[in-house]
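Suppose a colleague, Dr. K., hands you the sequence of a protein chain of 119 amino acids and asks what its three-dimensional shape might be. Before reaching for any lab equipment, you can write down a predicted structure in token form. Begin with the sequence itself:
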Amino acid sequence: QVQLIESGGGLVQAGGSLRLSCAASGRTFSSLHMAWFRQAPGKEREFVAGIRWSGDIINYVDSVKGRFTISRDNAKKMGYLQMNSLKPEDTAVYYCAADGTVAGSWRYWGQGTQVTVSS
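The predicted structure, expressed as tokens, is then:
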């Protein structure tokens, strides 16, 4: 079993930066792919970025390319999302997720962390 806990969210002005962290428990984390999703008020959850267990990038949603960077440290059982040049439209609850395959569904989810970007 895998447990995921996000942290690092908060309130930031447009143009600022935040780094989200996802702490994982469970000895199988290093073999799992992971991803970040977000859900803005009144909108459906969307995929933001994904990374394979090896560190190879899966993809970024077009709206964050060039601004966000996904990474992981398997030795520390941590995943990260570095967010730069934040925009008000980035405001959302951000979730980390993990799974053994990259097939459009994700088995394990964290509780989410709020990111609010003011204009």
